[in-house]
Amino acid sequence: QVQLVESGGGLVQAGGSLRLSCAASGSISSIDFVAWYRQAPGKQQEMVSSITSAGATYYAHWVKGRFTISGDSARNTNYLQMNNLNPEDTAVYYCYMIVGRKQYWGEGTQVTVSS
Question: Of these four, 13, 37, 72, 101, which has the most CB atoms within 10 Å of its CB?
Answer without folding.
Answer: 37
